[in-house]
Amino acid sequence: MVYLLLGNGFEEMEAIVTADLLRRAGAETALVGVDGLSVTGGHGIVVTADLALAQTDPDKMEMLVLPGGMGGVQSILENRTALLLIQRAWQQGCYLAALCAAPLILSHLGLLDRRRAVCYPGMEEQMGSAVMLKGKRVVVDGRIITGEGPGTSYDFGLKLVEVLKGAEIAARVRENVHYHG
After folding, report:
1. 25 Cβ partners below 8 Å, 6+ apart?
2. pLDDT of 28-47, one tens digit each?
3. pLDDT band at 181, cuts 50/70/90?
4. Dihedral (C-alpha) 32, 34, 39, 45: value to the nearest 10 degrees?
5. The one catalytic residue among 22, 66, 85, 100
6. By three-state DSSP, how is residue 174 classified?
7. Is residue 100 among the annotated active site residues?
8. Which has the closest alpha carbon to 59: 3, 140, 109, 143?
9. What does the alpha-carbon distance between residue 153 and residue 134 come to, in Å, rounded to a whole number?
10. Are the C-beta atoms of residues 105 and 63 closer than 8 Å to each other?
């Protein structure tokens, strides 16, 4: 199961494109509302999550995805249950994927220490001891996948598909959505 955490103020493009690509690839994916089922994105788009945070089953989790958007990132950072789910995902060997401003959450938890990563340009100074790779769209370092920003949502989502389902299925999804980036 892939859980995609949505806090109020999340970046809509990053969440929806990523969830869509994962579902097209056949990955069981649930949008998880940090503060309830109705979640408002940073640009005013209201999304109904599949699950509330309390309804997640960490034992079924294979990957945890954190879209950016500063409001969404702040919402997650202020939610103890969300932070515990992230830590549990890491401890049980799940993939952690964070896009745009969301790598700040992983940095805050110490999970990016000395790991290669990217984040929204201009936020690198806030990433602690992470090894920032400017100019990269998506970076994989072990079980951690980071993406640069909203414009890299397709690259990020397709990389998650590749990690979970393999390069062949990622290529098929890329072709089916006619993405040539």
Report:
1. 161, 164, 165, 169, 170, 173
2. 999 999 999 999 999 999 99
3. confident
4. -80
5. 100
6. helix
7. yes
8. 3
9. 17
10. no
